[in-house]
């Protein structure tokens, strides 16, 4: 059963105290849940958060379903999100995504057999001037080529 760590619970309490309405704390608290739940927000963790925040589950689900940065299904240990919006695509993001999927033997949005990687196509990540770019877990990587993206991921998989 999902439960936040003590630090996570303290984080939620602080966020609840920070805003004028509890509802405003939903986004940072969902982030925390995602971080502590292997990169995704399960229905069970929403129920847990709803109790902890004393807010209806429906309010939390509204936020969860609106924002694409929350994962509604499990992802690999490395969640590689390649921007596939216009600026990045003009500079090769589609080919880059195909290259990564082929190299790491995984279909877009799925988890590799060893559970280590998910490669997703996402909308603009707000760094169009350094396209093409990708986000891996919490970090951004810019001005990519298929080769440089592959090297970054391999480095992370090898713990470098
Ligand atoms: S289009 Fe890729 S970051 Fe904006």
- Secondary-structure element pattern, one letter each: HHHHEHHEEEH
| Low-pLDDT residue intervals, each spanning 5 or more residues | none
The helical percent reads 40-55%
Classified in CATH, the superfamily of the largest domain is Glutaredoxin
Strands of the biggest beta sheet: in what spatial order?
Answer: 2-1-3-4
* CATH architectural arrangement of the largest domain: 3-Layer(aba) Sandwich
Distance from first to last alpha carbon: 32 Å
- Which radius of gyration do the C-alpha atoms yield? 17 Å
**Class of the largest domain in CATH?**
Alpha Beta
Question: In DSSP terms, counting alpha (H) and pi (I) runs of 4 or more, how many helices?
Answer: 7
Query: What small-molecule ligands were found?
Result: FE2/S2 (inorganic) cluster
Q: What's the count of strands?
A: 4
Beta-strand portion reads 5-15%
What's the CATH topology name of the largest domain? Glutaredoxin
Determine the structural class based on helices, strands and strand pairing: alpha+beta
On the 0 to 100 scale, the average pLDDT is: 96
Shape, per Cα inertia axes? elongated
Domain module count: 2
Largest sheet: 4 strands, mixed
Description of the molecule:
Helices cover 46% and strands 11% of the residues. The chain starts with 5 loop residues before the first helix and ends with a helix. It has two domains: 6-66, Arc Repressor Mutant, subunit A (Orthogonal Bundle); 78-157, Glutaredoxin, CATH 3.40.30.10. A four-stranded mixed sheet has the order 2-1-3-4, covered by helices on one side. The chain has helices spanning 6-18, 26-36, 43-53, 57-66, 86-90, 93-103, 146-157; strands at residues 78-83, 117-122, 134-136, 139-141. It is elongated. It contains seven helices and four strands. It binds FE2/S2 (inorganic) cluster.
């Amino acid at each position: 059963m999902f439960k936040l760590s003590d630090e996570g619970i303290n984080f939620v309490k602080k966020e609840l105290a920070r805003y004028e309405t509890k509802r405003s704390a939903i986004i940072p608290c969902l982030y925390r849940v995602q971080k502590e739940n292997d990169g995704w927000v399960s229905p069970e963790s929403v129920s847990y958060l709803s109790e902890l925040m004393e807010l209806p589950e429906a309010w939390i689900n509204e936020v969860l379903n609106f924002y694409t940065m929350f994962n509604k299904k499990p992802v690999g240990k490395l969640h590689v999100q390649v921007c596939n919006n216009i600026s990045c695509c003009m500079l090769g993001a589609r080919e880059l995504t195909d290259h990564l999927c082929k190299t790491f033997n995984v279909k877009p949005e799925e988890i590799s057999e060893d559970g280590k990687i998910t490669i997703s196509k996402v909308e603009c990540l707000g760094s169009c001037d350094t396209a093409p770019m990708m986000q891996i877990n919490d970090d951004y990587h810019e001005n990519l080529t298929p080769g440089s993206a592959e090297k970054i991921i391999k480095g992370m998989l090898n713990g470098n």
